[in-house]
Amino acid sequence: MTKTEIAAKIKNMISENLRIPENMLDDDAELFGGDIGLDSVDSLEIISGIDDLFGVDMTGVDREHFQTINALASYVEEHVEQ
Question: Does the keyword NAD feature in the UniProt annotation (predicted)?
């Protein structure tokens, strides 16, 4: 699975689980802060969604891996079981 495919699945999961229109979810938009404005509860949804989609446990992962969809996709790409 390519990083682009992973990013698309993450974007879709965030859109569905957090009810954010996909057109607002640019791959480089800051998820926590000014661009999208997610909070710590939302991060738990993302952790759960990534575990369900890819089997990658993100519990306790450093914050820099949560900044953007691209950052999440890179982390998943590095840690997913092939």
Answer: no
Q: What burial class does residue 66 get, using C-beta atoms within 10 Å of its C-beta: 0-12 exposed, 13-18 middle, 19+ buried?
A: buried
CA distance 3 to 8: 9
DSSP state letters, 16-61 = HHHT--GGG--TTS-SSSSSS---HHHHHHHHHHHHHHH----TT-
Residues 6 or more apart in contact with residue 34 via CB below 8 angstroms:
none
- Res. 55: pLDDT tops 70: yes
The matching CATH number, chosen from 3.40.50.300, 3.30.420.240, 1.10.1200.10, 3.30.110.30, for 3-79 is 1.10.1200.10
